[in-house]
Amino acid sequence: xxxxxxxxxxxxxxxxxxxxxxxxxxxxxxxxxxxxxxxxxxxxxxxxxxxxxxxxxxxxxxxxxxxxxxxxxxxxxxxxxxxxxxxxxxxxxxxxxxxxxxxxxxxxxxxxxxxxxxxxxxxxxxxxxxxxxxxxxxxxxxxxxxxxxxxxxxxxxxxxxxxxxxxxxxxxxxxxxxxxxxxxxxxxxxxxxxxxxxxxxxxxxxxxxxxxxxxxxxxxxxxxxxxxxxxxxxxxxxxxxxxxxxxxxxxxxxxxxxxxxxxxxxxxxxxxxxxxxxxxxxxxxxxxxxxxxxxxxxxxxxxxxxxxxxxxxxxxxxxxxxxxxxxxxxxxxxxxxxxxxxxxxxxxxxxxxxxxxxxxx
Length: 361
Hints:
- The chain is an alpha+beta fold.
- It has one domain.
- It has helices spanning 5-14, 52-69, 93-96, 130-135, 149-154, 158-169, 192-199, 232-237, 241-247, 286-295, 321-328, 335-345; strands at residues 19-21, 34-46, 75-78, 84-85, 105-110, 123-127, 141-148, 174-183, 227-230, 253-258, 261-266.
- Helix 2 runs antiparallel to helix 6 and helix 10 crosses helix 12 (335-345).
- The longest helix is centred in the N-terminal third of the chain and has 18 residues, at 52-69.
């Protein structure tokens, strides 16, 4: 049972709305499939995907994820090929294994009724070949996994447990976990306008394809969310552990060990940042504003376009660097306003034992 009954109630009431038809805002494209699914999404960036031990760690991550997802996992998309059915949600170990160090990795496991449908349960792994990583210009590799909002609400430790475990197994450089959108693997571009539309309603929603942004996130983090992973170097650049402890009150922020780094949990459940009234601007959760201020020195200030969209679409997108950079800075506030957000934090639900992992620092 969730430590916050209101979150569980909200998740139950909106579960049916969390699957959105294809190309909702692109009238020139087909609509007969699920184009987007509102989820809780974890993204982890890591090195050395070409190494056998890292591929083994990825397989262990999938095995742990599949234990929760069970038979919801239905389709395998690999290396640009069309989706093929999975047998009872099982992924052959050879799929994630590299036959040579020059073999890149691109695996999507999805859960839609049709292969092109977006679904609540998805597991994606992207890895560069050795020669690409050695060049040092492609950025890190990426792992993405998602869960339905209702599952997270009914199982208040499930997402954190997997996120921290995966970050440790992969020696993650950095990462984040919170509200996000799964878009159809086969038809991503016609559904990016839906992602944009949702981001205008929820400030806590992630935007963009994690792997496509990797090059811009080699030396900076994308931002903050419910969960934020930092390796030792990022912790140091953020001022060190004592500084982070002083800026992140322990009643609302938990710090978990992750190798020589940490994972930060901001509050008992992810924050959507929804508008207070219909048609209003999305709110900025105090916990995210405070964490953003603490990590601002290590956050990226500029990336390439977060979205590409279609060549014929008219719907707005984050398809310019300027618009995308503005989204990255959405939790920035003047120093003079920060005290007000610290006061607002006192009104937010604090962490509870049933929503916090036991091995806090």
